[in-house]
Specification:
OmpR/PhoB-type_DNA-bd, five-stranded parallel sheet, DNA-binding, 2 domains, Rossmann fold, transcription regulation, 8 helices, transcription, WalR-like, alpha/beta, Arc Repressor Mutant, subunit A
Length: about 230
């Protein structure tokens, strides 16, 4: 039985009721907020496991809510919004959101995104909250301490940039990372040239991870936005 506590910050009553009914049916605990101020208060008071956040709240932009929460917590924030432009998605993700669902959405998709957020937390943190020295996803293994990567039991030879990219994605598994975020983390800056370089390095990394088209896909491309490492069951 799922025991995660989920904060639903949504001012549209029918959508809020749909989400709450879905959570109740699947044994999630929940809190609700109808505006940004209430969402921030509930998040700080009850420390939910996940936040489902609408961007168009009546008193403030959802992006501001994300920024406020990020000053004290790294809990997963999934944006659920009618805004479908890439610029809106990028702004929310760059502010610290973990994922983005566009309305109208299916209940199955919402539940899948929640499960992804839960897995990212459980994988990236050990029982004591510290990061594990070895990351495993399907047949991919990264030994952070030794700086080695193995695929199907054989060591994978990566360039320093490819290794940094892979580690960054693995430490944020299930989370969409924007081009800007990745380039700032890897190169310490972000420009059109850096994004172009990122695409080249990501292409070579994916060739090594997915040499055969029949191989498992580890990295998902979000066109115009960024990349995400998928959890392999």
């Amino acid at each position: 039985m799922n025991k995660a506590l989920i904060l639903v910050a949504e001012d549209d009553r029918p959508i809020r009721n749909l989400i709450v009914t879905t959570l109740k049916t699947h044994d999630y605990k929940y809190l609700t907020a109808e505006n940004g101020a209430s969402a921030i208060m509930e998040a700080s008071s009850h420390n939910p496991d996940i936040v489902l956040l609408d961007l168009g709240l009546p008193d403030m932009e959802g992006v501001e809510v994300i920024k406020k929460i990020r000053t004290w917590s790294n809990l997963p924030i999934i944006v659920v919004s009618a805004r479908s432009e890439d610029t809106d998605k990028i702004e929310a993700l760059d502010a610290g959101a973990d994922d983005y669902i566009t309305k109208p959405f299916s209940v199955e998709e919402l539940l899948a995104r929640i499960r992804v957020a839960q897995r990212r937390l459980s994988v990236n943190q050990g029982i004591d909250g510290k990061e594990s020295a070895v990351f495993t996803n399907g047949e991919l293994k990264i030994d952070y301490t030794a700086g080695c990567v193995f695929l199907r039991g054989e060591e994978l030879h990566l360039t320093p940039i490819e290794y940094k990219l892979l580690c960054l994605l693995s430490r944020n598994m299930g989370k969409v990372l924007t081009h800007t975020y990745i380039t700032q983390q890897v190169w310490g800056r972000s420009s059109e040239n850096d994004v172009a370089s990122l695409r080249v390095f990501m292409a070579t990394l994916r060739k090594k991870l997915e040499a055969d088209k029949k191989e498992v896909q580890y990295i998902q491309t979000h066109i115009g936005i960024g990349y995400r490492m998928l959890k392999i069951e």
